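Worked example

This section walks through a single chain of length 292. The input is the sequence exactly as stored; nothing has been trimmed or padded.
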Amino acid sequence: MTAERLQRLSELRDPVLVAAFEGWNDAGEAASSSIEHLELFWNAEQIYEITPDDYYDFQVNRPTVRLVDGVSRRLEWPTTTFSTCTPPGAEHDLLLVRGVEPNFRWRAFVAEITEVADVAGVTSAVMLGSMMADTPHTRPVPVSGSAYSSEAAKRYRLAESQYQGPTGITGVLQDQLVAAGIPSVSLWAAVPHYISASPNPKATLALLRRLEEVLDVEIPMDQLPVRVDEWERTVNEMTSDDEEMSEYIRALEANDDATSTDPNALPEIDGEQLAADFERYLRRRGPGSGSA
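Given that input, the structure is written out below as C-alpha cells.
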C-alpha cells in the first residue's frame, strides 16, 4: 500500500468496517448487494485491493472481461476491495470491504484484512451474510446474528444464531477481528431456499434496515423498496401456477405464523431500550421528524 493511501486510511474518523463476500456467505447476493448499495449512494472511494494470486483458484473464480464504452476491453480479477465513505450526519466513517470468498490461505487472508483495519483504526465491525432457509418469501425477511458479547447482542437486539457447523470466510473474519480486539457483530438474512434466482432485493433491504440500526445512521434506500415490490409480484406469479409449490409456501407461512404468535417465542420487551431506539430513529431522520 502506498504512503498516500496509508495516510488516507489513518485519517478516517473512528471508522466502522462493514464487510460482505460473494459465495457461500451470499445467498441471493443479498450481502454483497448491500455493500454495493452503500458504495453507490455514499460515493465510496476505493482505497486498496488485495492481490488475488495467493488466495483464488482462477479456474473456479475466473477473471472476467468487460467492455468499456462499448469499445475497449478490461480484464477484472476476482479479489477483495476496500473503499471508504462518510455517511451524511454520521460521527464516524466507514471502511467497506467487498470481495469473493477465497479458495486458499484463509488465515493469511483474514490477517491481511485485519492489518488494514488496524492501520485505519477501525473501532468496530459488522459482517453481512445471507443464507438459504425454510422461510416463505411472503413474510418479512428474518435477520439473525451474533455478537462479541451478550451486552452487544442486547444492544443491537440480535436474535442470536444457534447454528453450529461449517462456516464461511465471514465467520472466520469475525473471529479474527474479535481476537485482535475489534468488536464485531454479524447480520444474516434468511433467503427462501426455493428461490434460486439472484439478486434478492427483499433480503438486501432487510439487511440494510438492520445495518441502519447498528450504525445509527439513515441509509438511503432509493428505489430498493420498489424493486422489492416488483420482485414479490414476479415470485408470486411464478409460484401461483404450481399447486404443489403453493401448498408448500402455505405450510411455511403457517409455521411462521405459529412461531410468531407463540408467547414463549417473543423476546422480553425492554421499555427503556424501546425509548432509546425511538430517539435514535428520530435523530437519524433529522429535526422535526417527530412532528405529526
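What to look for: The chain has two domains: 3-223, 241-284.
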